[in-house]
Fold:
Amino acid sequence: MHIDITTREKRLDSIVSYAPVGIVQFDPAGTIIEMNTKAHGLLQSLGCPATCPREHAFELLKTVAPAVMEKLTGALFSEGLIFKNEVHIIEYGKETGQGDHYWQISASWIDPQCIVLAFDDISEQHQQQQAMLSAISEKAVEQGKSELAADILHDIGNAVVGLGAHITRIRRSLDDTKDNLLVGLADFLNTQQSQIASGIGEAKAAAATTMARSLADSHQELHAGIRESINGQLAILSHIQEILNIQRQYVAGKETGVRLQVNLRGVIMDSLSMLTATLAKRGIQLHSTLTEEPTLLRGDRTRLMQVVMNLLKNSIEAIDLAAETKTISVSLERTPTELELTITDSGCGFDQATAAKLFGRGFTTKSTGTGLGLTNCREIIESHKGTITLTSDGPGKGAATRIKFIL
Ligand SMILES: Nc1ncnc2c1ncn2[C@@H]1O[C@H](COP(=O)(O)OP(=O)(O)O)[C@@H](O)[C@H]1O
Ligand SMILES: [Mg+2]
Structure:
């Protein structure tokens, strides 16, 4: 197909005129030969219709993009590209409070008498890119922080466990100490006082008996004091551990949130076996009915175990040692759409007013309680898209905790 030169030129001319980038042609002295529609528009968008020196490219560039001007003056004629797709901050319009404009600019020699500058305003893309970059770096910082926090929590957790083990050992060796030997001696001296008196005299025998008795008493008092202090320390440690658990969860929540398949029945069985000794020691009967059907759900095994342990611990603590019936029942049932875990106890129960406060952070009715257990449980269950309720028919009538997970 033959197209005559004029048609071809006209078409090219229109393409340049309406191209979606600003195009300016000027001679080596800087005199502008032509400027397309988009270039006019871009200059106008800077807000410089009147004051911009429109006839002279170099004057114009000195005003709006001095860095580009510098590059051009350094570029001697050699056909072709001078620079391509460079992003420059446009100086003009800053004072008018428009904020920074970013233009992407290319410059080429077309022939010894013509330089072409092609440019576009990419402020919006630039802003988006910057926002994306800063979001990425913020995320990296957050990630770094939470990794650091996780490490610290892990170290503190280990230290606390170690400390707990030491304190428990002291308590055990205290339990093993035969502090009743002194009591025995005092009793012996007491019963033998008249025989001893015949040997060393009444007054001395009475003094020896009294001394032995007060030694035995003060020794027992001392032991009781140490025991109380140790129990206090263990309570503080368990408080610290609960706080660490909450913080860990917070840190974990910031991580990827990847959840694996967890067998809830396994979690319950493991928790129960960890508490077997405690239950036996307190004479609490355990009934458990765990469904044989699959009990898999997506979640965090450690956290779920923490929930079950917390609830069982609450039930154990709610049961008075002197009570006639001491039972805890654990049931796990499965319906086509739900997994339901119920822990029922024959403990002290609670009234309506208490019921309203149970899940409040820090609410406790125990002298060594932390009031963090149930709050923690609820956070964990809700992060597994489950629900948890704790009900009681009233004081002295036991309590029931119900957890439901949607399958
Ligand atoms: N099984 C239960 N029976 C009776 N009261 C309970 C039971 N579980 C929890 N509670 C009540 O809820 C309060 C808060 O429990 P929790 O958050 O675990 O903290 P803590 O055990 O440290 O007191 C307890 O102090 C207790 O009064
Ligand atoms: Mg508790």
Q: What stands out?
A: The radius of gyration is 42 Å. Residues 310, 313-314, 373 surround magnesium ion (ligand 2) (CB under 6 Å).
